[in-house]
Amino acid sequence: xxxxxxxxxxxxxxxxxxxxxxxxxxxxxxxxxxxxxxxxxxxxxxxxxxxxxxxxxxxxxxxxxxxxxxxxxxxxxxxxxxxxxxxxxxxxxx
Length: 94
Prior knowledge:
Layout: E1 2-9, H1 14-32, E2 35-39, E3 42-47, E4 50-56, E5 60-67, H2 69-72, H3 75-90
Antiparallel strand pairs: 1-5, 2-3, 3-4, 4-5
């Protein structure tokens, strides 16, 4: 098993932060066949071999994923892709 933990600072409104988190979720769902659902300010992800959440706070978004054995070998690549996406979507200050 491998854990991925990413914290991304942001200066977005709650509404824009939620939209940014949804973009990250949509990308994860598309690439890794995950199901995603909101639980308050927490966006939960799951599928066989993956379990995680993206938690929104006032000035940061925190993503935690647990990868099962089959995906753990790809953890560095997956982490890089997610971190890059989070940097891009949470950087929007418009």
